[in-house]
Request: fold
Amino acid sequence: MGDLVASEAATSRRALHRVFNAAIDEVNAAQRATLVSPLTITLGDEFQGLADTLADAIRIARRVRFALMAQDVACRVLVGEVAIDTPVNPERAWNMMGDGLSRARAMLDRKRDTSLYLFALNRRPKDELNLLAMGAGLTAIERRWTARQREDIVATLDGSSVEDIAARRGVSTHSVYKVRTAGQSDAYQLLWEAIHNTLSSIDFGWEDRP
Reply:
């Protein structure tokens, strides 16, 4: 799940609506194989979708954030563990019921939370707390990024090498390293890997083994 931040203060809601819809369409197209039920805009500035695994869900959620950040639009995302009891809707992420959905929605509705990465794991309070702390760390770093830092770090996360980025920008590799260092790229990637590994371990039940 997710929602736009401070959408009511947008200069042009029509323009924001276009950007929001374009980002959701872009991510749905790119992540079609990992979405059980596609990302769906529900109430103006909110969206939700259903992935098969938590690890897929956080990758999808981050992709939405990055697509919107590129257009200077902030959003919050929440990844939660749910058990759907009704038929899954493969066309739109609505008209489904199951354990975990209401708590996830309640967490997203707590507007006083400043973190942009939230997690709702009903049966795993310790994991949830750790993930929330790491999500706050990602948020703190992202909020300090300049546009250039964001572009270079996102490109790195998407698989581009320093040499690729330097060639694309027409600068030296030293310049790219300097930008990434200023944007705390290493700390950011460490937090991201910790979140991804934690969610993957839950998906595969590794944390339940003796």
